[in-house]
Fold this sequence. Notes:
The protein is an all-alpha fold. Helices cover 70% and strands 0% of the residues. It has helices spanning 2-7, 14-25, 29-50, 55-69.
Amino acid sequence: MAMALGAVRPHVAVESLEGVLECAKAGDNDAFGEVVRSLSPGLVRFLRRRLCRDDDTANCVVQDAWVATWPRLKCFDSI
């Protein structure tokens, strides 16, 4: 799945992001915040190009995705 993340250009290297994600999966709120800060800008850009032309809508979709992801984060195998 690293290829999919590369498409949204995370602010940290994918290898580093995997370590941060592992910390987030262990319940580290700060680590989850780093994942969100790293991936959100690229996800918003992607959605703005593919789903809508509206920044507010793209931001809301990404925000909703993160809110849904947090309680289920332990279920993810890898990024």
